[in-house]
Amino acid sequence: MSQSEDRGGPNRADDFLQLFKKGAEFTQDLLKENERLRFRIVKLEDALKEHEQVGGAPPSGDAARLLRKIEELEQEKEEILGRIRRVEEENQDFAHRYVEIEEENNMLANLYIASYQLHSTLDFKEVTQIILEIVINLIGAEEFGLLLLDEKTNRLEPVACEGLELSQLPSVNVGVGIIGTSVKTGENYFIESMEGYERDFLKPMVCIPLKIKEHVIGVIAIYKLLTQKEKFTSVDYELFSLLAGHAATAVFSSRLYSESERKLSTIQGFIDLLTK
After folding, report:
1. Whether pLDDT at 203 is above 80
2. According to the model, what pLDDT value does residue 172 have?
């Protein structure tokens, strides 16, 4: 989380906005200077014409000086115009980067809220439902599933999904196929091109392993994006990694809690039997 905040925090966004405003002011100054130089050139040209009309050809020295002055002003004007073009390009770059940072700030704010929700409960069903909502709202997925690792069988079993029937999702061995390989390596998988992709439950367009450090406990497999989501952005790829860590921690904690509750309930049952 810290790297994203360092790169796109509110202070950085304000800095870019100030640079953008300064660039705009500098452009205005250059435009004013250009107009002033153009006015000087026109006056010199008019003076040269008056000399020619009133007294015939001006003395050669005066004419040469006027021509040199005009050439100097024309050259200075071209330099200023070049600087204006460079400033305009920089302004466009600043504006584009500012928009990207604003989008990243909004996404990170949403992720902060989502991560808070994830860690606000130890109920496993609530945690899985929150994960589904995050994938829909932040990533923009329409059809996807959550598969968790059964360490006894070393297989990934579907536990929740969106836009699909849970029975449609496969049970996958670790290391087998795209899903199993993604879990084994712990690396995100993205299809090279989404154009022409047809849903295949063994070949999702995206796999996001849920990791606690290097230990993978499950995977989010995405098969279809929302209509308005045409492609993934650079922010999305960062969100995948952040989401994977937060979701994995929340799932792991809720499962431990559920298991401990069941054990406590069993122990309490034995105690009740013994005491009676």
Report:
1. yes
2. 94
* DSSP one-letter string for 241-253: HHHHHHHHHHHHH
CA quadruple 135, 141, 142, 147: dihedral positive or negative? Answer: negative
Please state, as a whole number, how many other Cβ atoms lie within 10 Å of the Cβ of residue 247: 26
pLDDT value of residue 11: 62
Q: What is the pTM of this model?
A: 0.60
The architecture CATH gives domain 124-264: 2-Layer Sandwich (3.30)
pLDDT of residue 3 exceeding 60, the answer is no
Query: What is the residue extent of each domain of the chain?
Result: 2-116, 124-264
3-state secondary structure of 158: strand
In angstroms, the CA 214 to CA 250 distance is 16
Q: Are 66 and 44 in contact (CB under 8 A)?
A: yes
Task: Give the 3-state secondary structure of residue 64.
Answer: helix
